[in-house]
Amino acid sequence: AASVRSDIRNCSADPPYLPPTATNTTGRLAALRGTMRAHNVQAYIVPSTDAHMSEYIAQRDARLGWLTGFTGSAGTSVVTLDKAALWTDSRYWTQAERQLDCNWELQRTTQIESIGLWILQAVPVGGNISLDPFLFSIDTWNSYSQALQGSGRVLLPLDTNLVDQAWGDQRPPAASGEIYTLPAAFTGSHWQEKGLGIRQRMEQHVRRPTAVLLTGLEETAWLFNLRGDDIPYNPVFYSYTLLTNTSISLFVDDSRLSVSARESLRAGCPGPLCVELLGYKQALAHLLHYTQGNVTVWLGTEYTNYGLYRAIPEKKLLEESYSPVMVAKAVKNAKEQELLRAAHVR
C-alpha cells in the first residue's frame, strides 16, 4: 500500500482513483460528441497547435487543454463517439496521468502511424474522420491522409471547429491588446526596406513568383516592425500577410493598431508600398480570389496550415520549407547584432 502513488490516476481501481489535479471531462466530451453527431463525424482529431503552427499558443487556442485537462505543450487527441485517447511524448507521461480523468486512454507515443492504427480499430469502414484543416500543417495533413489511405474511411476537413462549438461562450475572448510599432532603435531597418528586399528575392527566383504568403506570426511582426501580446511571453499578434509584386495585404484586427502603427503602414499610400488592411478572417477569401489569376504563390511548408494551402491550385504554388521572409529574418543586420551583444553583456 505504501508504494501506491496518490498523485496519479488509477483507473483500474474500484472505484477508480483520480488525484485532485485531474479534470472532469465527461461534460466536455458529451458536448463535443453532440457536435460530431450533428456533422456525421465518427472521429475528431484535436491537436495542440494554433492556425500559425506557433510553438506557444494563447489560451483561446488551447483546445486540447480544455477538452482533456492536459496542459502539456505537445499532444494530439482523438475522440470517437464512445472512446477518447491522448498521444504525447515522454516529457509529459506523468503529467498526463495527473491531469486526465478515466475517460481518456494515454498513448505513450506521438507517431501519426500509431494514431492512424487506433482510429482504424475504433472507427468502422465508411466512417468519417474529421479535423480542422487550419490547425494542421501541410505535412501533418499528408501524414494522416497516408495513414488512412485505402482503409475505407474518409478524412474530412471541416472549416467549422467542433471543439469551439462545444466550448461555446466559455472559450476565452480574442486578443484585444494594442499592436504597436517597434522603435527604429531596435530594428536597424524600416519595413519598406524589408518589403523591397523580399520583392527583389521574388524577381531573382527562377520561378518568378508573384506573391509571398506569410502565415508564421513572427514573419509579419518582423516584416512590418510591429509587435503585440496575443500570446503570453511572445511579442506577436494574429495576422497573415500576402505580399505581391504590386500590393501588400495585411490581415489583422486593424482596430487594435496604434496610431503610429497605422501611420507607418499607410505611409506609402497610394503606391506599391501601401498596406491594405483587411480583417484577419478575410485571408482565405482573399487568397481564393487572388489565385484565380495568372499567379504563383511562394510559401513556407513548415508552418503554413493546410486550410490555406488547399485554397491554392497546385500549379500556382511555389513550396519551400521556409518563406523568403523567414530566411531574411534569420540574418541579423548590424543594429540587431549590436543589440544581441549588449543583451548578452547585460
Automatic annotation (TrEMBL):
Task: Please report the name of this protein according to its UniProt entry.
Answer: XPP2 aminopeptidase
- Name the Pfam families for this protein: Creatinase_N, Creatinase_N_2
Q: Where is the Creatinase N-terminal domain?
A: 28-151
Q: List the molecular function annotations (GO) for this entry.
A: aminopeptidase activity; metal ion binding
Keyword Signal applies: no
Tell me which InterPro entries the record gives: Creatin/AminoP/Spt16_N, Creatinase_N, X-Pro_aminopeptidase_P
Which keywords annotate this record?
Answer: Aminopeptidase, Hydrolase, Metal-binding, Protease
Family to which this protein belongs: Belongs to the peptidase M24B family.
Keyword Hydrolase carried by entry = yes
Give the species this sequence originates from: Upupa epops (Eurasian hoopoe)
Looking at the record, which segments are called Disordered? 1-24
